Amino acid sequence: MNKLYIFLKYFFIVLWTVFVVAPFLWALTTSFKDFQSVNGGVTYIPWVDFEPNLEGWKVLIKSPAKGGVDIIEPYFNSLFVTCTASLISIILGTLSAYALSRYTFKAGFVKNNDITFFFISQRIMPPIVLSIPFFLFLSSINLLDSLTGLIVVYIVLLMPIAVWIMVDFFNKVPREIDETALIDGCNPYQAFLKVVLPNSIPGLIVAGMFCIIFGWIDFFFAFILTFTEVQLLPVKIVALNSSVTPWWSLSASALVSVAPLIIVAFIVERYLSKGNLSGAIK
Amino acid sequence: MAKIDLSNISHSYNPNDPNPVYALNPFSMTWENGNRYAILGPSGCGKTTMLNIVSGLVRPSAGRILFDNKDVTDLKTEDRNIAQVFQFPVIYNTMTVYENLAFPLKCRDFSKSKTDERVNSVAETLNLKSFLNSPARKLTADQKQLISLGRGLVREDVAAVLMDEPLTVIDPDLKFRLRRNLKEINEQYKTTLVYVTHDQNEAMTFADNIIVMSEGEVVQTGSPKELFERPNTTFVGYFIGSPAMNLFESEASSNDSVKINNTLIKTHTNLSNLKTKKIKLGIRSEFIKIAQNQNENLVDVNVEKVEDLGNYKLITAKLGDFTIKSKVTRDTEIPSSKVKLHIPADRCCVYEDNKLI
Q1: CA pair distance A102, A192, nearest whole angstrom
Q2: Helix axis angle, B141-153 relative to B112-125, nearest 10°?
Q3: B91 → closest Cβ in A179, A190, A280
Q4: How many C-beta atoms lie closer than 10 Å to residue A247's C-beta?
Q5: Is the pLDDT of residue A216 over 90?
Q6: Residue range(s) occupied by CATH 3.40.50.300 in chain B
Q7: Do B303 and B326 touch, CB atoms closer than 8 A?
Q8: Do strands B62-67 and B70-71 pair parallel, antiparallel, or not at all (unpaired)?
Q9: By the 8 A CB rule, do B146 and B127 touch?
């Protein structure tokens, strides 16, 4: 019974691993292939099935004048926009979430929960609804086709995620912790910064991870709010496409664009499994 | 350390409602410096509200709080210099044990050497010395509660240490030792300790003054002996003592005696000014004994059961429709099912409208 259980457990783990890893391996091998080895029947193993070459990767860094697409600048643009917008969203979101979790607000019939829902409802709206307002808004303040403009828009998109996750998280941090900090002589700001915030690191990490993911993968707003001056990675990758689908360079670009997320996932996973909050009270 | 005056305090959680519900009805009380107080009452009687008012987490709807005659009603929690320990241990789990204990001093800008000295001395008292450098979250629940306590005790000048059922999560064995520790700390540092509990044994063994509360009302304040021997109300008689006080619905039959089940019981209470004849006679089961050679205040009862509770026997008997309980020493022989019990007149408490006369 026990052996069967272990066997089944590992069987499904292996199955799942294959399911998850296979596309990456596929992309990795494809990125080293040329037209012949992609279209001339199924090939798997480099040097045996096909002769690897670096063409697919070279296209990504060659300047357009030499027939490449040069994703280096868009890559760093994307990193900069995502990180800045995520950071600002996390800071603003955490502060508003703490206030929503600990203080009572009331404006007519609108109360804390309604305000929290207002934040979340921003994400329920389909992005296309926002495209024209955002376009007009950015053009009226001269921020179209600029990194700053994109950061502003991304903050609007990411902050609800941060608020949503952090309100939930702060609600789970016992109030007694704040109260104890006050009794111990902190003012409310110190209580937040020195006691509540350090206890909320797992929440901050989760919120940060979601912000980074949603910021990094956004294509829609990056596409409609930029033209020539500034370009972000997802938009640039689409530019790779041509009449003959370049599977090799698309695969290579797919790998470079998921790389940051994989790194983030590896760093974050360690903190999440630590369970920093367990045992704060009780 | 301070004398704490609560003057005409009352509190409602919905004061603007046309029919506010009061969690605390108006009361006044003084807590002398250096004493040990226990606030005792069933769940939801307003004990925690009272503590939170003193610590400033809750602002009372009415009334003033004075620390050493200085009005602190509008002072914020952080400026009151009070310590509070909650029912469940609250620790700062990103810090080490040392940092936890030092936190209240750090917030008040104590010098490094002074902090060191205080933290070490408190850690010594609470047996936390060997854990000082380990992360606080790695400790067991009772050790965590010790940290909470320690944070309260680390400030020498603290006005009072308020404890809200602090020993709930702690092993019975350690509980006993900790209560002793708390007593010693109180004697050594002369810290005013206020201890909220619903466990009468805890209150009786810990405090020299007990405040009994019921439904937002302070029903009686006094030493454990006073509460035990002369409960102010039938509630206190019922709530304190195990088993609860024997209470008999009865009628006054003369100026100093009442009638229960056709038996005349003499009391030392003057019953001439009663408004009604309906009264209750209360007597602790500890004072009821099997009659030896007394010739008055005797009742004939039918023994229903005798429980051997280790160091004493508990007799449950029927006196007409009433149940009467008597606590006798272990070696007492209980002759048969019919027994004569003696009710000492000086131990009888008479209640009119559930209040002692």
Answers
A1: 11
A2: 130
A3: A280
A4: 18
A5: yes
A6: 4-234
A7: no
A8: antiparallel
A9: yes
Point out the residue among B57, B93, B151 whose CB comes nearest to the CB of A199: B93
What is the ipTM metric for this complex? 0.72
Structure-block tokens of residue B115: 């902090």
List of E strands, A73-124: 106-107, 110-111
Residues 40-59 of B with CB under 8 A from A: 55-57
Could you tell me if residue A38 is left (phi over 0), alpha (psi between -120 and 50 degrees) or otherwise beta? alpha
What is d(CA A45, CA A49) in angstroms, rounded to the nearest whole number? 5
Enter the tokens of residue B153: 């005790």
Residue A278's pLDDT is what? 43
Model confidence at A149, in pLDDT bands (50, 70, 90)?
A: very high
Domain A72-239 falls under CATH 1.10.3880.10 = no
Instruction: Assess B83–A contact: CB distance below 8 Å, yes or no.
Output: yes
Summarize pLDDT for B71-122 with one digit per residue, the tens. 999 988 888 888 888 888 888 888 999 999 999 998 888 899 999 999 998 8
Residues B2 and B69: their CA atoms lie apart, in Å, by 9
What's the rounded Cα separation, in Å, for the pair B207 and B205?
6
Q: How far is B108 from chain A (nearest CA, A)?
A: 7
For residue B74, count CB atoms less than 10 angstroms from its CB and return exposed for 0-12, middle for 13-18, buried for 19 or more.
Answer: exposed
Fold classification of B246-356 (topology level): OB fold (Dihydrolipoamide Acetyltransferase, E2P) (2.40.50)
**Across the strands, what pairs with B322?**
B319
Res. B190 pLDDT band, cuts 50 70 90: confident
Q: How far is CA A177 from CA A231, B148, B160, B209, in A?
A: 46, 11, 19, 30
The one-letter amino acid at A56:
G
Q: What is the pTM of this model?
A: 0.76
Instruction: Kindly report the nearest CA distance between residue B114 and chain A, in angstroms.
Output: 17
CB atoms within 10 A of CB A262: 11
- Does domain B4-234 fall under CATH 3.40.50.300? My reply is yes
For an interface test with A, give the residue of B57, B82, B92 to mutate (most A CBs within 10 A).
B92
Answer whether A180 sits within 8 Å of B57, measured CB to CB. no
Q: Looking at the predicted structure, is the pLDDT value of residue A152 above 60?
A: yes
Query: Looking at chain B, which residues constitute the CATH 2.40.50.140 domain(s)?
Result: 246-356
Neighbours of B274 (CB within 10 A): 16
Confidence at residue A281, expressed as pLDDT on a 0 to 100 scale:
41
Whole-number Å distance between alpha carbons of B166 and B83: 13
pLDDT category of residue A143 using cuts at 50, 70 and 90:
very high
Return the amino acid letter for A36. Answer: Q
Which of A134, A155, A159, A130 lies closest to A145, judged by CA? A134
The domain segmentation of chain A, as residue ranges, is: 2-66, 72-239
Q: For the beta carbon of residue A97, count every other beta carbon within 10 angstroms.
A: 27
